[in-house]
Amino acid sequence: MVELLRTNDLVQLSFLGAVLRDGGIEPIVLDQHMSVLEGSAGAIPRRLMVSDEDADAARRILREVGALDD
Q1: Are 50 and 20 contacting, i.e. CB atoms less than 8 angstroms apart?
Q2: pLDDT tens track for 23-68
């Protein structure tokens, strides 16, 4: 698995997940249930992950929508 980005912005995560799925890539969001432990403060960023095989294509898609700079 490859981490594409970390964020506390749930709207951004939802949007980027939809964009990746539209591009044929199934993303995984890790740490999304950590709010149970942290008291819903949003202090722990969620990680947007994809498989190793999809990493290059996923980065390209995220660059196209302005989510990645590199």
Answers
A1: yes
A2: 999 999 998 877 666 666 667 889 999 999 999 999 999 999 999 8
